[in-house]
């Protein structure tokens, strides 16, 4: 596939052509050298009218022949099973691409530098846009990862001028990257590419006006458009409908990034997916989970599949249990109203932690292609044993005074319903019923207002059979087991805990760490997860985005237990703000002969 532009931030080049199935080859026609490009998928998606069914469009084949001088040869239009084109419905006859349209398609290859990417942040006045999306886009620009021609538009209901948007965005941009050149100068250049358009999220007319502005900045180039929906889920569909009908690219790709939550349960998630697919195809939808963009999460497959010492150990034969731990040292300050509608299980466990678990436990994919990786993740999710209520512990933080400071309870938040039973902590024991992981408990826990902020994966290995040094460890053999700790945040690191002899004449054993601390090993700043995922969306790389069947499998696992918790009005176990969480979580782990790794003597 021809590359439209390359970047300095990644070693590979990539194409902005909408179809991933296009191919090219050289041959000869009438004695002239030319290039044959298969635009079947591209034309089917972008030229044929939207009301033609996907099945019909998929069977429409079209080849473009590019002559050496850039002229476009008149193509034959073979249709599956030799069906005469005139037999297709009349509405299709009016949409047969003209010679001019073929030239426009051809120019995509001939004038590769004359394409542009327009990035529209829908919900630009919100916190996510200000704190994460615009700073990530600036970091990509600073690193030279954005194409030569790009434009950024903010879209929201708030009335704002271009200058006011730039002023708002400038307050959140930081020069955290090493100063190879003036950051202030780069910031000014970036802000000049940022514009604003005010409009309603359900107004085709407002999006049509946005489309007009985008075209003015695209300047007749091949336009590729990325829309980031940083808006509440109840208005996703309205925004997608207006984007699809009034602001999609005429020639080039259109992609939409959708933020979680993707529904509240299986039914609402399926309804959302069905509604989105009325206006978009699956390969246009990028469901973002920013935890998949974190450096240590992406390093999971590298650690496992490129190191011989780990892959043979990655199974029930050597691994005793796996723990995925997420904790925050603050409550729901500022998000109580939103959080109370979802709770910690929907907000963290069903997406962030479950996605990490699927990456950790999947079989070796056929390749690093996005679909191959996502296929293996889906297999893991579908192999998981249905979650039972007795394997779940829920908690909610209460007020606590420490050091003369009183910390509020969850229900003290004015935006939270009075007497709310929404859990701010949850722990669960999950099992994967397949040959690799049969019987291995995967313990996951997530909570707010805990004693420390951390996200980590802890892999506890089995005891050494017939260990000669058991007497040196006393009765607590768990101290003798090896443990691999992958610290996702903060202070990214990989620790391997091993047993070691303390220097001296006696035989005294010690547990030591083989440590890879990223800050010490690598001088380069670790990119924010949103930088990686935004760049992937621009490139069309879907590996770290969630496919609809992944989503279905994830909700199928958690929906029954969520329904049971709510129908039975299960009262959460209360724990003090700043503590280690409910005692019930330790009893849950002990039931499977496991001790949480984050409460040991060594942290």
Automatic annotation (TrEMBL):
Annotated keywords: Carbohydrate metabolism, Glucose metabolism, NADP, Oxidoreductase
Enzyme class: oxidoreductase
Compositional bias ranges of the Low complexity kind: 13-28
GO molecular function: glucose-6-phosphate dehydrogenase activity; NADP binding
GO cellular component: chloroplast stroma
Start and end residues of each Glucose-6-phosphate dehydrogenase NAD-binding domain: 121-299
Record bears the keyword Nucleotide-binding: no
A Pfam family recorded for this sequence: G6PD_C
Region listing for Disordered, in residue ranges: 13-32
Catalytic activity: D-glucose 6-phosphate + NADP(+) = 6-phospho-D-glucono-1,5-lactone + NADPH + H(+)
Keyword Translocase among UniProt keywords: no
Stretches assigned to the Glucose-6-phosphate dehydrogenase C-terminal domain: 302-596
Record function comment: Catalyzes the rate-limiting step of the oxidative pentose-phosphate pathway, which represents a route for the dissimilation of carbohydrates besides glycolysis.
Entry similarity comment: Belongs to the glucose-6-phosphate dehydrogenase family.
HAMAP family to which the protein is assigned, alphabetical: G6PD
Name of the protein: Glucose-6-phosphate 1-dehydrogenase
